[in-house]
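Hi there,

I know you've been waiting on this one. I reran it after we fixed the sequence typo, so this is the corrected version. Both the input and the resulting structure follow.
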Amino acid sequence: MERTAFGRQGESLARTYLEQKGFTFIGKNFKRLHGEIDLIMKDGPALVFVEVKTRTTLRWGVPAEAVTPAKQRHLRWCAEVYCAEHHLTDTPLRFDVVEILALPGRPVRFHHISNAF
């Protein structure tokens, strides 16, 4: 499967997973020049920017390890742009990571890291 399609499939799974946990879907794939936010969800009063990492192997470590400090800066910048474009000034913000492990021959596993950075 193509990498982008695989990533989008992971985002869809993460959205369903978070909705089952009580989150409300706001948007997806918010793209700007320096980055993209995979999912934008609401958890109570908090607006949650979610980075989804889907993997079929642990060869390069757990998926969340790919959310490097540089990636975090890009996500924060995109979140600031999103908030400015939507005139959100007093909304609590949070950054979460959802890891999805789709290891061959095993059930898909989810790991939600709330307030990851």
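Quick highlight: The chain has one domain: 3-113.

Best,
R. S.
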